[in-house]
Please model this.
Amino acid sequence: MVLESPMLRLLKKILATLCLIASAGALGLCGSSPVSAQALRINHPLCHAVSEEVAPWNVAPSTFACIGQPERYQRGTLWLQAMIPPKAYDRDDLSLIVHSSRFDRLIVAFFYADGAVERQAVRSGDFGTHWRAGGQLAFRAPQRDASLTKVTLRFDKVASARLLRMRLVGRGEEGTQTTGLATLIGAALVLLLSGALYNASLALAVRRQFSAWQAAWAASMLAWGTCWSQLHLFFFPAMAGALSAQICTGLSCLAIALATLSAITALEQVHVSVYLRRTALGLTGCVFALGLPLSLMRSGPIESLGAVLAMLVLANLLSVAVSIGQAWRRGSREARSFAGAWAVPMLVLGSTSFFDADTMFWGGGSQILVLFAAAWQTLWLSIAASRTYARLRVERDIARQAEAQAQELARRDALTGLPNRRGFIERAGSILNISRGRGDVVALLLIDVDWFKSINDVYGHEAGDLVLQGIACCLAPHESPVSATARLGGEEFAVLVAGMGDVELMRFAEALRHEISSYDHGDVIGHRKVTASIGITRSTIAADFHSLYRVADEALYEAKRGGRDRVAIQLMDAPDRYSDLGEVALKC
Model:
């Protein structure tokens, strides 16, 4: 079972909360009354007139065409006019909502039955107070006693008439839609911001290329959503209009390229064929190569190139989907996460061809769906990556724990459980360093079992092993932060202690010798008594372990020569020189 990190649990809470907010906003938008709003499209009911050059601001056409499509307007002026039938609305507090596009100037004129004309204007770089969230411009018809008869829109150097979306709504409905749309956009942007920050921190923490690509993609979608929704106009009002539209086109192409790279690079080469990988990357290059010039265009075949770009994007996404499917069939664990992440964006892009998203999500249109699909994708992949890295971290911790246990076992004697020579030398080095800093006396006790060979010869090696385990039981309790015990090999044991004076050290050694000789080995060797000889050396200077061992070993041989079952001590005055101050041998 993979434990979830606090950051992962936080991401899930953010996702659930903001999805509830988004759902409420979406229901509000979808539930807006269609009776009180009228979509304005060319020829339905908009009539049009064109001037191939930019007309003076006070010049208006005398006639409008209500059939056909306007042409040759990109370098000139495009007029659109909608007649308002009598009593079409119960109130005259109407608002005209225009989805902003690439144009130099827009003038909206409201005509009233008493002959009055009210004009409102915006230009690229200055939308004033008319901009709204969701890439919209709102023009409120001034209230008058006379009824509104028609509305005229004048666009100077507009990039594409077919991309314009307009609607007449009641002023109250405009406020409701603007609030709901702002709520939706804010929720989606917070989701993308969370995903971008989380993936960036994850990329720095685990040094994985996939998380870096994901962070860059979420950041690009965050920038695109902020620019498309016009929220950046709070801080950069001069970017209003054509510049923002051009930046959005470039950011969308960049986001598609980053999304493809994050998916393709995350799938291992053994799971995706070279042909599919190259196809996806090639289509991504084509999208990027066409999208950048298209983002800079203000005139020309923008609609045709836009259609080609849309086909390339769909082909690119399809190639990624096929790559994910192939990787899934070949057993890729990452492909399963990508399948869940890419399913929603693919469904969104496919479904917008079968219903009018502009009617259901006015102002947001298909862009709001793409924004939420991107938020879904980045958070899905963030959670999937977190679970993957959490699983890897658990596996790494288990491996490290196993390695630590193996290293500990390598430092332990398998028979007695005491540290072996390697472990004892490492532990002794640590105690010696600490004692050297404190100026404590350090003593080494070498313990050798008397006549142990005869025990093996008479009772067998199994009995000898049990005797060694019994002696280890006597020594094990003396392991502490200032002392260490070990079985050095065969029947030889050792104890290193720090901070004991001469008298205390001799009492400790005698108590240890007595404890060994009085240990009951049960029925293993009958009533035979097992004794041990102990050699001691102590040093008041900075001696190393090997120097201590040599002197203690000499003291041990003195105890053996003195009759065994004894304690003998040999003092040191330098690391490699012995003192002949005398030795003490105490018989049991």
In short: The first strand starts at residue 38 and ends at 42. The first helix runs from residue 6 to 30. The CA atoms of residues 294 and 302 lie 7 Å apart.
